[in-house]
Amino acid sequence: MNYPLTQIPERTEKPRQKGLTMVMDKGLSLRQVEDFLETGENYTDIVKLGWATSFVTPKLKEKLAIYKSAGIPVYFGGTLFEAFIVRKKFDDYRRILDQFGMEYAEISDGSLEMDGDEKCEYIRQLSKQVTVLSEVGSKDEAKIIPPYKWIKLMKAELEAGAWKVIGEAREGGNVGLFRSSGEVRQGLVEEILTEIPEEKIIWEAPQKSQQVWFVKLVGANVNVGNIAPHEVISLETIRLGLRGDTFSHFLDK
Amino acid sequence: MNYPLTQIPERTEKPRQKGLTMVMDKGLSLRQVEDFLETGENYTDIVKLGWATSFVTPKLKEKLAIYKSAGIPVYFGGTLFEAFIVRKKFDDYRRILDQFGMEYAEISDGSLEMDGDEKCEYIRQLSKQVTVLSEVGSKDEAKIIPPYKWIKLMKAELEAGAWKVIGEAREGGNVGLFRSSGEVRQGLVEEILTEIPEEKIIWEAPQKSQQVWFVKLVGANVNVGNIAPHEVISLETIRLGLRGDTFSHFLDK
Amino acid sequence: MNYPLTQIPERTEKPRQKGLTMVMDKGLSLRQVEDFLETGENYTDIVKLGWATSFVTPKLKEKLAIYKSAGIPVYFGGTLFEAFIVRKKFDDYRRILDQFGMEYAEISDGSLEMDGDEKCEYIRQLSKQVTVLSEVGSKDEAKIIPPYKWIKLMKAELEAGAWKVIGEAREGGNVGLFRSSGEVRQGLVEEILTEIPEEKIIWEAPQKSQQVWFVKLVGANVNVGNIAPHEVISLETIRLGLRGDTFSHFLDK
Fold it and tell me: Which family does it belong to (chains A, B, C) (predicted)?
């Protein structure tokens, strides 16, 4: 930090098991990755190459190398996994992870129908090859999953070998954990937290109001994801009670 | 593409006559142009320097040179044409196009009243000097143009020499083709497509939901415009059925 | 300007006392600062490092040096001042301003309760050390300040030594001067302008519609603030009547 300030909540340090920030790269150039890392490296724990952007992104290997040299793990968005599954090409997907030297992968079922057992089987298999993040929730606005089912799915996927489960929000933050207005489904989140340890969940929270909400509920070291590269500094100030929205939250009462 | 995937719609390749992506540069620095081209060059067919940003943009000639060396045509936004016309300086405008070596120009009447015959006369004259794009639609929310009139204007402007006609949406995507909510005026678009060949129209579609809508209606190789430089990769995945919103659209049924 | 155009309103030139553009840097990397300055240097009068981003921003001294070499003053957002005040560390704050060679500072009370006299006392003390901008208005949506009180506060703070007063809008432009919809509180602004000289006020106007509104009300040389770095070129065209929204405003009638 650039100067001392008291009454700042303690932040975990890298490598973090909680207090993670997962950033979404949806097509940065190599120089833009360097720019992002200059400001965000210490505050970024893992990077997702959004959905299947890795299919069309030029200089993919060079990009992966930059993140690797910064010690930040990268994974392909879950939609890419689903694109291979819907085409019945799981083995191809595994080979491609190897080919690009990926050490993390996301398993999701946001865009297709997949039985819970089938999903857990993919988690079991893939977790022998890489560290697996598994995403719960649908990208479909009309598909409301009740809390008990979120919990059941999360438990099963963690037991099957997922390192973390991700609470789905879509890039725009208007499905899954959130109402179409972007508002958090508070009861859902609180109920999940009674059953699943907070450090095992990454909450997708692309919008500032959502980040504020999770920091207030869970604390400075909540795991959040789908953060835009240029919002990492802002998120860090929200975590530390140094933006208006959380200004009073961590002060001695 | 970085790895093989089946059931991907065929994309046209450069130089494209359909499947065009028109990107709006509203004041990028030279290095930002380079960054954009690193990721977007293969997916970008033409660049518009938004409205009259070219008037105040520093290093304009250097910027034009970068785009030129990448083989991507550039034109000044239609508002600049209108700014000269409202001042009765059409000849000055033509000289400025020459002075900057412009090979494309846009003719529009979004911010002033112009008779259809007068507009076609400008198209006829300017198309002797450059390749002309002509824009139909108003920037004025209150001015609703009925479908038959959109079609009549588009036909006349193509006959007068326009290379493509552009369906106006304003940068924010909330006028012209769109309701103030950003929703597409579906009946209007479908009626236009019964009369004007799809490859002759560039649909302004700055918002993701609009891009998705046009790809679903017209196909992977729809012409769309007013795309932000950092959204070109995203658009390409939407075209290919590799983002959640179009995930199932191109799969074998 | 890159070519001549008539009927363009006269713009003040640097160093400006009116017609100021205050830009918010909320965590740019060094290269991103250079990119912003390449396009925005001539149109940017002062830069705010948003809220307390300076606490977590890497390479802060190098960033300050780049702005300094461009001759653009920088100040830390008012929330940082408040973060020190709420911790009863005003003297520490003054030392930190010295330590970083700051020549400007913002005094605000958007996130805490502060008596008007106390605020003016801070302005008096700090204005012996640096040039002070003082911000009026609350970040709290529920806290509506009536016009006569805005005026009283602004007058008192200018008399206490503030160089300019800032009309609060928050980064999102939805509190203070604005309704939660982002719409300007027109009566409030007009009443303020009957009592406070326009050149003494910087209006926070992060959204385009707000910038348009102020340019139409006050003129091309209105002072506006909280402008995003990549929107400075756009703002300049709005000031000059070269974007659709102000296209007709400065034309000879």
Answer: Belongs to the phosphosulfolactate synthase family.
Contact list in A for residue C170 (CB cut-off 8 A) is 244
Q: Suggest the residue from B44, B227, B237, B251 to mutate for an interface test with chain A (most A CBs closer than 10 A).
A: B237
**How many structural domains are present in chain C?**
1
**Given A56, A82, A111, which is nearest B237 (Cβ)?**
A56
Q: Which run of H or of E encompasses B136?
A: strand B131-136
What is the per-residue pLDDT across B108-137, written as a single tens digit (0 to 9) for each? 999 999 999 999 999 999 999 999 999 998
**By C-alpha distance, which of B50, A228, B73 is closest to C238?**
B50
Determine the average pLDDT of the residues in A3-29. Answer: 97
Q: Flag whether A253 is in a domain.
A: no
Is residue C58 a part of any domain in this protein?
A: yes
Smallest CA–CA separation between A177 and chain B, in Å? 17
- pLDDT of B215: 97
Whole-angstrom distance, CA of residue B112 vs CA of residue B120:
15
Domain CATH code at residue C202: 3.20.20.70
> For B186, left (φ over 0), alpha (ψ -120 to 50), or beta?
alpha
- Among C181, C174, B229, which residue's Cα sits nearest to residue A208? C174
Contact across the interface for A233 and C84, Cβ inside 8 Å: no
| Per-residue model confidence as pLDDT tens digits over B73-94 | 999 999 999 999 999 999 999 9
Residues C131/C165, Cβ–Cβ less than 8 Å: no
Report if residue B16 sits inside a domain.
Answer: no
User: Looking at this predicted complex, what is its ipTM?
Assistant: 0.95
Q: Which residues constitute the domain of residue A158?
A: 21-246
Residues 6+ apart with CB under 8 A from A250: A7, A8, A9, A220, A240, A241
